[in-house]
Amino acid sequence: MAMAVFKSPIKGEFHGSRNMESKEFKHHHLLHRHSSGRRRVFVQTETGCVLGMDLDRSDNVHTVKKRLQIAFNLPTEESSLTFGDMVLKNDDLSAVRNDSPLLLKRNLMHRSSSTPCLSPTGNDLQRKDLSGPIEILSHSRCFLSLKQTANDIVEAMKAGVEPIPVNGGMGGAYYFRNEKGQSVAIVKPTDEEPFAPNNPKGFTGKSLGDPGLKPSVRVGETGYREVAAYLLDHDHFANVPPTALVKITHTVFNVNDGVNGNRSREKKKLVSSKIASFQKFVAHDFDASDHGTSSFPVASVHRIGILDIRILNTDRHGGNLLVKKPDGRFGQVELIPIDHGLCLPETLEDPYFEWIHWPQASIPFSEEELDYILSLDPVKDCEMLRRELPMIREACLRVLALCTVFLKEAAAYGLCLAEIGEMMTREFHAGGEVPSVLEMLCIEAKRLIAEGDVLSLRSDVEGETEFQFDLDYSDLDSVYSSKTQTLIVKNPFSNGRSSLGKLEEEEEDETEEEAGLSLSLSKLSTSTKDNKMGSMYPNNPRDETEKTLSSHKSANVLLPVSTNFVKLADMIEAEWVVFLEKFQELLDSAFAERRTMTLRSRQRLGTSCQF
Ligand SMILES: Nc1ncnc2c1ncn2[C@@H]1O[C@H](COP(=O)(O)OP(=O)(O)OP(=O)(O)O)[C@@H](O)[C@H]1O
Q1: Max Cα distance, the chain (Å)
Q2: Where do the domains of the chain lie?
Q3: From CA 213, how far away is CA 211, in angstroms rounded?
Q4: What are the start and end residues of every segment in region (Disordered) (predicted)?
C-alpha cells in the first residue's frame, strides 16, 4: 500500500543544491530580484557579531567581502561566505534572498584557537546598518502576530523595561517584556547556544557551523529549527508558539572575550546585535516533568507526537512541554510544546519522545488526526521551508520528508503513536546501540538500490551535487561513527570514481567482520530489534565515536557520543527518488511485524491493559 507521495513532483524538489531549485520557484525568485534589485542580508561572524547590509544589483561576493573586510578587519582571501549549504563563490549572489542570514567564516588555514571575537571596526558601515532594535528576518504573513509583540517590546525598551536572563538550561535565553513588565517573548541568540562562542553559562569551545550538542545539528543552527517547527505546525495543530528569526540589538546579551570564553561585557554593558529565535511567551503553570501525566488530554499528546515524528525531534523531554492548568473547574490542561532546536537533524538520529510510554500514546488516532496526517504533504512542506527559511539544509529536508512518509504510511496501516515512535527509536543492548527499525529499513532500501543498477543515475550530476554534500558531511564524519554507512555506500559505486575516493580507500581495509555485516544486512528482515542484532556489532559503535571525540578540543569532552547508522544526504537526487520508492515498498511487512509484536505483548499482559 505504498503511497505515491513522491511520484510526479519529486523531480527538482529533492536535490542536493539550491541552484537546482524548481523552475517555478527560480522564476519567481528571479522576477522578484530583478524587479527590486535590492536585498537586505544579515552577516554573522563565527563568533556571533552581526551586521545588516543592503545589497544592490551591482553587488557580488567580492564586493560584499570587501565591505566586510572593512567592518571586521578580516582580509577577503582569509574568509568565506556561506548561506545554508552553499559556500558563495565567484560573483554569484543570485541564490541569496532578501532577509537572509549569511555566515562569514575564517578559512580553516587562517583559524587559530586564540582568534579573537571579530567585532565590527568600520564605523561607517555600522552607521549604515540601519536595523531597528528588533527586525524579523522575513516579511511572510506567518510572522504577523510577532510583529506586534516586537513593537510592544521596543516600546517597553524605550520606557526602560529591561529583559530578564533565563536561569535554567545550557543556552543563553532572555525573557523580553512589555511596558507592563509582563514577559511576552523568549529570545535565544544563536551565538549563545550550548558550546557557541558567546554562551553565557560556560559551555563554549566551538565556532558557529561546527557540529554541536547533537553532532547532526550544527552550532548556531537551532534557531531556524525552532522556526521550522512553528511553520510546519499547520493550523496550530500541536500548539507550537509563534516563532521567528530576528536580528535583535540589546545590552543584555552576552559576549565572551573570545579566548577563554570569559564573560567580558557584564560590566561594560555594550550593545550587541544578535541573530536569535524569537518565540511568543506562553504563560503556564508548570512543565510536564513536574507533574503526573494522567491529566494530559489524549488529543494534545497525539498532536504533539505527530509533530515530533515528522520533525524527528531528538529532545522531547518533559521540560519541553509546558502545562497550563484549566481556566474553569472542568476544563482540561493545555500542553504547549517548546524548544524545537534539536529537531530536523542532518542525519537520522535517535529521537527522544517522552510521551512514548504514556498511556495516551497507545490509544488509536481519532478520525480528525488521521485526516490531518492524510493531508500532510512532504513535498509542499519542503518547498515551504525552502521559501521561508532559505538557509535550511537539504539534509534536514530529507529527514523531514522521510519521517513524514513513515508517519503517513504507518497511520494508514493502523499503527498508533506509541508503535510508530518505538519503530523510530533505538535500543541499547549489551553490544551497544542498535539501529531503530526505521534506520534498518533505510539501510535495507540502500542495499536494494546497491543491488539494482543505479550507477547510470550518477553519471551526469556527480560533480556539483556531490560537492555540496561533501561539504556537509566532512565536519559531521569526524564526530560520528559511520561504519555501517560506509559499507552500504561503497558497494554499488566501487568503480574508481574520484568523488568516492575516500570510501574506496576504506574498502581495502574491510575486515572479515565487516564483510559479515554486509551479508547480515542483505538477509535483514524487518524485525530488527531482537538480540541477534546485538551480535552484528561485536565492537560497540559508540567506542569508535568516543575514540574520535577524544581527539577534539574542550567542548567535545562534554558532548555526548553519537552513532550514525544512516545518512540520507549522500544520495544524488535520482538515487533519493529510488531510495524512497524502495523504502515505501518495505514498510508494509515492517508494520505487520510490529502489529504482531503488539498483539503478542497484549496477550502476555492480559486484557486489563487494553484501552
Ligand atoms: N514560549 C515559551 N513561553 C514561556 N516560557 C518558555 C517558552 N520557551 C521557553 N520557556 C521557558 O524558558 C526555559 C528555557 O527554555 P528552553 O528549554 O527552550 O531553553 P534551552 O536553553 O534550550 O534549555 P535546555 O538547555 O534545557 O534545553 C524553559 O524551561 C521554560 O521555562
Answers
A1: 75
A2: 133-281, 287-413
A3: 7
A4: 191-212, 499-548
